[in-house]
Design goal:
Number of domains: 1
Order of helices and strands: HHHHHHH
Structural class: mainly alpha
Mean pLDDT: 89
Largest sheet: none
Low-confidence stretches: none
Number of helices: 7
Distance between the termini: 47 Å
Strand content: under 5%
Oligomer: single chain
Shape: globular
Length: 218
């Protein structure tokens, strides 16, 4: 895997997220609130990618960018599920967000200071997977529509569970791959970006479906 190909894949992922961010804010007054929240996660992701490049240019610790991204995005993802689930279990989502942010800050400042903050990424993945599985359970129980493929949150949830489940293995073994095997993470992180591309494409489908539902609510 060449550096040029890796950067091309990473840039394409950023491009998809930027397209998704734009689609999220078309006709904002007609959109469901979780769609707007999704748009903020996409904007934050794009900003995080650019901040990583900036930190590298300034020869600063680039690991701060993904950690700060997680800290910013996790409460928003909690908000997405809170709204998608009919605004139930408010205290659970609030406490999950607070505890995650505190854990991520402590890990960044005192534990994995100069290394990839894999503990934070692992925790985020596990909790979002739990959110996703619970949403599928809720979906089967409530059956809000007979045509699940027309439900934007179905596509968003599927995108999240594919992305975070696929990357959980990578996040768990990051420290081992780098510190024990002395492997270059370029190949493994390319897999991370490929999963991000799949996530981005599915989110774009969700946003397109949401816009379609606005025009044709039937």
């Amino acid at each position: 895997m060449s550096l040029q190909r890796f950067l091309l894949i990473a840039d394409f992922q950023t491009f998809l997220f930027a397209i998704g961010a734009i689609l999220s804010f078309i006709k904002p007054r007609a959109r469901q609130y979780y769609i707007i929240l999704l748009g903020f996660t996409l904007i934050t992701s794009v900003a995080g990618d650019f901040s990583s490049v900036l930190l590298k240019t300034l020869k600063l610790n680039v690991n701060y960018a993904p950690t700060l991204y997680c800290i910013a995005v996790f409460p928003i993802i909690s908000g997405i599920y809170y709204n998608a689930l009919g605004r139930q279990h408010k205290k659970i989502f609030i406490w999950a967000s607070i505890l995650f942010v505190l854990f991520a800050i402590r890990n960044m400042l005192f534990v994995q200071q100069t290394a990839i903050n894999s503990y934070t990424l692992i925790l985020e993945s596990i909790v979002v997977i739990i959110y996703s599985l619970y949403y599928f359970y809720w979906l089967l129980k409530e059956l809000p529509t007979a045509q699940l493929q027309r439900l934007p949150m179905f596509w968003i949830n599927s995108a999240y569970i594919i992305y975070f489940s696929g990357n959980l293995f990578l996040f768990v073994f990051t420290s081992y791959l780098v510190n024990v095997l002395n492997n270059n993470l370029l190949v493994y992180w390319t897999l991370h970006n490929v999963l991000g591309i799949i996530e981005g494409l599915m989110i774009i489908v969700a946003l397109w479906m949401d816009l379609r539902n606005i025009k044709s609510p039937s």
